[in-house]
Amino acid sequence: MNVDLFHFELPNDRIALRPAAPRDAARMLVVDGDGLHDRVVSDLPGALRAGDLLVFNDTRVIPAQLEGLRGQARIGATLHKREGPRRWRAFVRNAKRLRDGDVIDFGGGVQATAGAREEDGSLAFDFHGDEPVELLLERAGRMPLPPYIAGKRPTDARDADDYQTMFAREAGAVAAPTAALHFTPDLLARLAAAGIDHATLTLHVGAGTFLPVKAEDTADHRMHAEWGRIDAETAERLNAVRARGGRVIAVGTTSLRLIESAAGEDGVIRPFEGDTAIFITPGYTFRGIDGLMTNFHLPRSTLFMLVSALMGLERMQSVYAHAIDDGYRFYSYGDASLLLP
């Protein structure tokens, strides 16, 4: 499909720079068979049915943004995928100043050796020493806010909490699964009281989630692989919910993409561990999910393509036009949509 079909005009002032407080006070646009309904996230128990199950991504964002020096040259790096105990792949600013074998000093005693550059422009970094890389990043790194926020204000102490979900447990993401940022312990308790259960899986979100689609046709776009895991117990729970007539609602496109990666053509979700580069565009047949709660996405992005695959492109263009006209806040710190096909 032509990527231009997924374009829409978004006023700059619709980009949220801070999350709603409290988190579940964010607005929520419910899209279902009856039309559009303007609500807030705290209304979620009434928007779902007893027997439904929400699936959250429990990945934890690491301080993956690094600034360092190679001699006198300043190097900026965003780690995006672990490739070994001490090796991470990174997108690098001023990458032309780096050669295979160069050492970068990130300060605080943190150094890494650069590898050869790949076709996508990324480099592998091998971190020096014996300390776990996670400890090195805590010392030298900072929270990797999305470029559409970081370009408008600096990262600060609030982001260390604001940009982690209440489910964050498995360290390894360089971007938050932002739909889950709306949840609080109180909201989770009210969902449970309404008969709505939840489960978790892990997908370590990479920086590729922010990369623009440069191809003119979706068939020519290459997704970056991300590592994920659904254990056998979780897969069994999801299948059991659907078998008894409940719905599996993915919270966030990351949860959806991993479930769909694990689901067979028979609709059965199986245990999964490994990389996925699944790219969902209109025409895709969903096999493992029955709905999606997600934030509002960038024009021409793979995530807007995904929601268009779920609900229909024409309908999502109409949904986003309503959201823009009605003042919904967009992107990572913005409002939510609940999409029930």
From TrEMBL:
Source taxon at top rank: Bacteria
Catalytic activity, reaction form: 7-aminomethyl-7-carbaguanosine(34) in tRNA + S-adenosyl-L-methionine = epoxyqueuosine(34) in tRNA + adenine + L-methionine + 2 H(+)
GO molecular function, one term: S-adenosylmethionine:tRNA ribosyltransferase-isomerase activity
Localization in the cell: Cytoplasm
Pathway terms, separated by semicolons: tRNA modification; tRNA-queuosine biosynthesis
InterPro entries cross-referenced by the UniProt entry: QueA, QueA_dom1, QueA_dom2, QueA_sf
Keywords, alphabetical: Cytoplasm, Glycosyltransferase, Queuosine biosynthesis, S-adenosyl-L-methionine, Transferase
Chief location of this protein within or outside the cell: cytoplasm
The EC number(s) this enzyme carries: 2.4.99.17
Chain's role: Transfers and isomerizes the ribose moiety from AdoMet to the 7-aminomethyl group of 7-deazaguanine (preQ1-tRNA) to give epoxyqueuosine (oQ-tRNA).
PANTHER family linked: S-ADENOSYLMETHIONINE:TRNA RIBOSYLTRANSFERASE-ISOMERASE
Assembly and binders: Monomer.
Family: Belongs to the QueA family.
Protein name per UniProt: S-adenosylmethionine:tRNA ribosyltransferase-isomerase
UniProt lineage: Bacteria, Pseudomonadati, Pseudomonadota, Alphaproteobacteria, Sphingomonadales
Gene responsible for this protein: queA
